[in-house]
Amino acid sequence: MVDFRLHVGASFTFRADALFELVDALLVSPLVCSAVEVSQSPLFRRRFASVYDALTAGQINPTVLRRTLAAAPEDALTVAGSAVYARDTPIAPRPDARTEPDRSMVSSAAPAKAIPGHPFSWLGRVIAWGKSWLSPRVVGRVPTSSTPGEIGAAQVRRLAADPTPPAPKVVTADSHSPVPSFRRAFVGSAPGVVLLARLAANRVVHGPPPPPTGKRGWQCRHGATLSLPTPGPPDRPETAWLFGREVRLSAWVGYNVRKVPTLGGVVVGAEFLTADGIPSSKRPLWLFWSGSPDVALADVVTMSLLRDAIEHFFRFLK
Description:
The protein is of the alpha+beta class. The chain has helices at 2-10, 16-28, 35-39, 49-57, 62-70, 148-161, 180-183, 297-306, 308-317, and strands at 12-14, 59-60, 78-79, 82-88, 91-93, 104-107, 114-126, 134-141, 169-173, 193-199, 204-206, 225-227, 236-242, 245-256, 264-272, 285-289. Helices cover 26% and strands 29% of the residues. The strands form 3 sheets. Strands 3, 4, 5, 6, 7, 8, 9, 10, 13, 14, 15 and 16 form a 12-stranded mixed sheet that branches.
């Protein structure tokens, strides 16, 4: 913690002391409504005017600060030698902030269903199993001029360009995230960065396109289809034990999700069984893996379940 605070302080290049105490005061204040409240914090030992001085004249080196905040612990979790990242797009409702710029209509559990607010794109590393904590790597607000898929794709490309950690990186996403603009960021990125996305149980995926016929006209871009409700015999049937339960695993190799045929991979189905050998849920857990087809299917399922850490992390923040 001491080293972390020293690195954060080193990123403040002007009015460093005032900025550092301002951060400490904000961290221990449950609710801040004005600069006066911040100046009354016991951790802010400066005069009231220093609050405005830090906000208006303070300077931060964003590169140093981003590197400090994105650094994961040395003992961070890895699965099959890969660092596991989780990606999600939570929302920040702003229904009453009429003067807030660039608001959009976001989905909500409110009776109105859609309310003004800001969507954010989070990409963070899972550092431990069963913990409500995440190491945020890249966080950005989604402007109205862009989409969550485009912002997420830019974050994946930034992650791929970063040499740390040296281990391969696996980005996990829910069934709503892998839109075409997001999936295109993984084309040609394996084995450095691999996509692991959940698929809807009613999805239809496609095999590789047939070879060109040499004739003029429209060429087929997709091959045979695989309907997840009725998939047929798998290429790799396996059985494993995960978390004290027997799991029936199935894999179909060489399929892609529509609109991005250049991103091929493995479709994995997982069924957790009861003690009687009966599936515990009506539908299997369906996953799309864009990495090596020789991957252990149990490791793929484990990495997918680790994505739940980001959901617990958001609850922790609230």
